[in-house]
Amino acid sequence: MDYKATLDYLFSQLPMFQRTGPAAYKDTLENTLKLDEYYDHPHRKYRTIHVAGTNGKGSVSHMLTSVLQAAGYKTGLYTSPHLKDFRERIKIDGGVIPESAVVEWVSNFATNNKMWKIQPSFFELTVAMAFDYFAAEEVDVAVVEVGLGGRLDSTNIITPDLSIITNIGLDHTNLLGDTYEKIALEKAGIMKSAVPVIIGIMQKETASVFKEKAKEVGTSVYFSDQEYNVSYSMLALNGKQQLNLQKSGQDVYPDLQLDLLGHYQHKNIPAVLKAIELLNKKDYKISEESLRDGMAHVVSNTGLLGRWQVIGNNPLTVCDTGHNEDGIKSIVKQLENTAYKSLHFIFGTVGDKDPGKVLALLPKHANYYFVKADIARAMDADELAKRAKEFGLNGEVYFSVLEAYNKAQLEADKNDMIFVGGSTFVVAEVLL
C-alpha cells in the first residue's frame, strides 16, 4: 500500500463527515475506546490541552501550539479538517506526519482489523493515529482540537491539563441541538474533574450552562474575555497586527505582535492569554519572551492556513475558511473596514445546511462567482445562485472554483479586492 492507496482507503472506505456530512457522525465513543485500548492508551503518555468551540478553536489551537513551541516544548497538534493534505491534521513542531508513517500505521490497522473487526469512521481512526504517533515520537504536550461538538467527539477520551471552549454559535444544529443552550451543553461535555476550563466569550445564553456543568464535574471555569481584551490594534510595518492588550483594565504585553491578520482574532486572544497564565500555574514554563515569539510566528511555526490569508496583491486577494453565521459576520465586518474599488466574491457552501442565514449577511454590492467545491457535500452552484438571488446577491455560476478564481483575476482591477470563502473546501481549492 502506497500513500495514494492509503488515502483512498481512508477517504473512500470509511464513513467521513468531511465528505458525506451527518451520515458519518457517531453518537458513541465505543469504537474510539476500543482503538485506544488496542494502542495501549497513547494519550496518557504526554500532556494534553483540549480545545472546543463553534468558531476560533483552530486559531486558538495554533496560537497555543506556536507559543509552546517557542517555549521549547516538543508539541503535537491535532486539528481538522485539512485543506490540502491529510497530513495537515497531525503535526509535531509544525512538521506534518510523514507519508511513510501514515502508510505504515494504516496498513497495520487494516491487517489487524481483520481479526478484531472494528468498523471505525474516518475521524475515529485519524484520532487514534494521531494519539499513537504523538506517543511514538515522545511529544511533551499535544494541543488537541475537537472535531465536532465535544461530549461525543473522539478526542474526548483525554484528560487534559486544560480545556478551552472558545464560543458557542448555531452550527451543526441537526446534530448538536437547535439552541445556544443545547449546543453549549454538548461542548461542555469536554469538562472533567479538576481540569480548569476557559470559556473564550461570555454569552448570556450559555454562561449558566458552563457554570453549572463545571460545578457538576468539580472544576473551575474562567471567562477569559472578562479579564483580557484587545483595546487597540494596527497593522505594523512588518505586516503583522500590533496589539494593545489589557487585563482587568491594566495594560499588559505592550505592542504584542500577531501574524494572523483577521480582526476576529481579537476574540480568540483572551483565551490564549488566560491559557498561558493557567498553564504556568501548572508548572509549565512559558516566559513573556516565548509568548511574544510564538504569537508573532504562528503561521511559520504551525503552518496555519486560511485565516484571513492574503494570497495576492494588486488586486488584494484574501481567503478565509469562516463558513457559519458567526464566522461570516466577522468576515463581513472586516470587509467593511478594507479599502477596495470593487469586491469580487468567490462563494460556495455545503449542501447539508440551509445557507439562508449566511446569504442574508453577505454584501449586496459585490460581484459574485458562485461555485461548487469538488466534494459530494457541496451545494450545487446553480442552486446556490438561485438562493442567493433571493437575498439580492447577483453573479455568475462557474464550473469549478479555479475557473471562478481565474475569471476574477482577469476581471478585477488592481485596486479591487477578491475574496474567496463560504466553505473550507472552496478555500482549499485556491491554495496552491
TrEMBL record:
Q: Which reaction does it catalyse?
A: (6R)-5,10-methylenetetrahydrofolyl-(gamma-L-Glu)(n) + L-glutamate + ATP = (6R)-5,10-methylenetetrahydrofolyl-(gamma-L-Glu)(n+1) + ADP + phosphate + H(+); 10-formyltetrahydrofolyl-(gamma-L-Glu)(n) + L-glutamate + ATP = 10-formyltetrahydrofolyl-(gamma-L-Glu)(n+1) + ADP + phosphate + H(+); (6S)-5,6,7,8-tetrahydrofolyl-(gamma-L-Glu)(n) + L-glutamate + ATP = (6S)-5,6,7,8-tetrahydrofolyl-(gamma-L-Glu)(n+1) + ADP + phosphate + H(+); 7,8-dihydropteroate + L-glutamate + ATP = 7,8-dihydrofolate + ADP + phosphate + H(+)
Q: Which GO terms describe its cellular component?
A: cytoplasm
Describe which pathway this protein belongs to, using the record's wording: Cofactor biosynthesis; tetrahydrofolate biosynthesis; 7,8-dihydrofolate from 2-amino-4-hydroxy-6-hydroxymethyl-7,8-dihydropteridine diphosphate and 4-aminobenzoate: step 2/2; Cofactor biosynthesis; tetrahydrofolylpolyglutamate biosynthesis
Which branch of life, at top level? Bacteria
Q: Which GO terms describe its molecular function?
A: ATP binding; dihydrofolate synthase activity; metal ion binding; tetrahydrofolylpolyglutamate synthase activity
Q: What are the residue boundaries of the Mur ligase central domain, all occurrences included? A: 51-273
InterPro entries, per the entry: Folylpolyglutamate_synth, Folylpolyglutamate_synth_CS, Mur-like_cat_sf, Mur_ligase_C, Mur_ligase_C_dom_sf, Mur_ligase_cen
Query: Which Pfam family, an example, fits this chain?
Result: Mur_ligase_C
Cofactor(s) needed by this chain: Mg(2+)
Gene3D superfamilies (UniProt xref): Mur ligase, C-terminal domain (3.90.190.20), Mur-like, catalytic domain (3.40.1190.10)
Q: What is its EC number?
A: 6.3.2.12, 6.3.2.17
Q: Is the keyword ATP-binding assigned to this protein?
A: yes
Q: Which keywords label this protein?
A: ATP-binding, Folate biosynthesis, Ligase, Magnesium, Metal-binding, Nucleotide-binding
What residue stretches are annotated with the Mur ligase C-terminal domain?
Answer: 306-423
Which GO BP terms sit in this record? folic acid biosynthetic process
Coiled coil as UniProt keyword: no
The text of the family note is: Belongs to the folylpolyglutamate synthase family.
**What does this gene product do?**
Functions in two distinct reactions of the de novo folate biosynthetic pathway. Catalyzes the addition of a glutamate residue to dihydropteroate (7,8-dihydropteroate or H2Pte) to form dihydrofolate (7,8-dihydrofolate monoglutamate or H2Pte-Glu). Also catalyzes successive additions of L-glutamate to tetrahydrofolate or 10-formyltetrahydrofolate or 5,10-methylenetetrahydrofolate, leading to folylpolyglutamate derivatives.
Q: By what name is this protein known?
A: Dihydrofolate synthase/folylpolyglutamate synthase
**What species is given as this protein's source?**
Draconibacterium halophilum
